[in-house]
Amino acid sequence: MKKPLILVTNDDGIAAPGIRSLVESAKEIGEVIVVAPDSPQSGMGHAITIDDPIRLRKVQVFEGIESYECSGTPVDCVKLAKNIVLKDREIDLCVSGVNHGSNASINIIYSGTLSAAMEASLEHIPSIGFSLLDYSFDADFEASRPYVKALMRYVLQHGMVDGSLLNVNIPSLPTSQIKGMRVCRQADARWVEEFQEARDPRGQPYYWLTGRFVNDDYEEDTDIWALQNGYISVVPSMHDLTNYRAMKGIKDINQITIPT
Amino acid sequence: MKKPLILVTNDDGIAAPGIRSLVESAKEIGEVIVVAPDSPQSGMGHAITIDDPIRLRKVQVFEGIESYECSGTPVDCVKLAKNIVLKDREIDLCVSGVNHGSNASINIIYSGTLSAAMEASLEHIPSIGFSLLDYSFDADFEASRPYVKALMRYVLQHGMVDGSLLNVNIPSLPTSQIKGMRVCRQADARWVEEFQEARDPRGQPYYWLTGRFVNDDYEEDTDIWALQNGYISVVPSMHDLTNYRAMKGIKDINQITIPT
To answer: What is the C-alpha to C-alpha distance for residues B33 and B4, in angstroms, rounded to an integer?
Structure first.
């Protein structure tokens, strides 16, 4: 049987430990191609590079794995992988991560990791974004690997509802303490900013973005609940941002007329 | 009666004609504060600036309007406006644009204009992103102004369903030919990339992103249909990306166990 073709990318950059762990998992399941940013791209969201040329360089980072680093954003990586690197080949699965740090709840919209997975889903490629709830460089990705592989196999076997991707977040726990996986919804949480204001050597002010994550959505069907209770959260996510429930309530906009 | 406080931003930069038109419209309705990028930020999506300091400078660009330019992304602009510039004041409405070019359908996820509006909606500020279907610098924003003002008034009067924003796209037509406004859903269209490959002076390859917009979603309830038929499209959009319909189909993930 032909091995599935798996595209691996991330937003922490091709040299991050998280993507190394993901490559190790993916190569047990299929043929792996890596196209990842040449530098950290956290917080890039769904940014694309329009006004600048993009570089793509073949590199040797992972033993026996064809790999490319790209000067663009995570979304650029997926576009280049599909259109240049793997031009004539069908990609069976795209996995992004493993991110150093949570992409649960509202973090999905800021996350380059998840935006890369979403871009693949737009191209009808089944895709998963993985994140571990540990921001440190030395984060232990080992415990999550059996689950990461199980989800890759699941998606390869079942496919994904067209236009969807999985947003998978993993608690930073030993394997024995992970209770399993839970399909859930994105909690309605948000960031409260606390800009750090300082002065440069010339006395001019600058601001540095910082903040704290605030969740007031305590329902048991959310990703935050799952993670706080020892589960891996699995949220099917999509790129159709239409708020269908809100449509009816604003239908009277259709009746607004402008006197001519 | 106290005038409403309106925050104006965009992604084409503070010097673009589109934001000037929006400021002109907004100042007929309320007190206007501008916080916009100091350079073009198209395609930035929901990117935020994490690894660099952000500059915020008071500038004189619009007659009698308090204005700031920001070195960050459109989302950074909204965060700085709320937390630094307007710290102790309640923002009644955030408007972003008017963008030079369409943000209909899937363009919403790549758009800095709409991400700025979405960021405001996360902060429970009613918000609207406006875009005109004309990419040129000399685009004629005049025809759309009565509609732009009507929508601002509508949202100020009715508020928005929490977590929603309006994605408003305007056909490039004279006022007399605009048929009105239509509340609709995001069409299921996408971009097909065509990277331009070239060589730099040292013979090294680079790629430049280009592509064409492909829509196969011909339903009459979509934004693309509305725009092609002379209407202004109004899509209520949201930041909850959970694909609720897909949840049931993947519930068996909950049963996956890892042998220990």
So the answer is: 11
Structure letter (DSSP) for residue A9:
E
CA–CA separation, B22 vs B34, rounded Å? 10
From B237's Cα to the closest Cα of chain A, the distance in A is: 4
Other CB atoms within 10 A of residue A20 CB: 18
Confidence (pTM): 0.93
The H or E element that residue A32 is part of is strand A31-37
The answer to whether B214 contacts chain A (CB < 8 Å) is no
Q: Is the peptide bond before B98 cis (omega within 30 degrees of 0)?
A: yes
Question: Which contiguous run of DSSP H or E holds residue B190?
Answer: strand B189-193
Among B82, B183, B204, whose Cβ lies nearest the Cβ of A253? B183
CA dihedral B239, B244, B249, B250 (to 10 degrees): 50
For the cut 70, the answer to whether the pLDDT of residue B61 exceeds it is yes
State which residue of chain B sits closest to A187, comparing Cα positions.
B240
Q: What is the C-alpha separation between A77 and A69, in angstroms, rounded?
A: 8
Mutate to test the interface with B, among A52, A84, A87, A109 (most CBs of B within 10 A): A109
CA of A167 vs chain B CAs: smallest distance (Å) = 9
ipTM for the complex shown: 0.90
Find residue B67's DSSP bridge partners: B34, B59
> Any idea of the CA torsion for A33, A39, A107, B77, to the nearest 10 degrees?
-140
Q: Is pLDDT of B136 > 80?
A: yes
Contacts of A176 in chain B (CB under 8 A): 260
Residue A122 structure tokens: 């737009």
Classified by CATH at the fold level, domain A5-186+220-239 comes out as: Stationary-phase Survival Protein Sure Homolog; Chain: A, (3.40.1210)
* CATH class, range B5-187+220-239: alpha beta
- Say whether residue A157 is in contact with chain B using an 8 A CB cutoff: no
Asked whether the predicted pLDDT for residue A73 surpasses 70, the reply is yes
User: What ranges do the domains of chain B cover?
Assistant: 5-187+220-239
Interchain proximity A54–B206, CB inside 8 Å: yes
A88's CB contacts (< 8 A; 6+ apart) are none
Which among A106, A237, A249 has the least Cβ separation from residue B243? A237
How far CA A66 is from CA of A78, A81, A86, A155, B148, in Å, comes to: 15, 12, 11, 23, 51
A194 and B83 within 8 Å at the Cβ level: the answer is yes
pLDDT digits (tens, 9 = 90+) for A177-232: 999 999 999 999 999 988 999 999 999 999 999 889 999 999 999 999 999 999 99
| Distance from the A85 Cα atom to the nearest Cα atom in chain B, whole angstroms | 12
Position B53 pLDDT exceeds 70: yes
CB pairs under 8 A between A and B: 251
Largest pairwise CA distance in chain B: 71
User: ∠ CA(A198), CA(B118), CA(A81), 5° rounding?
Assistant: 90
How large a percentage of chain B has pLDDT more than 90? 86
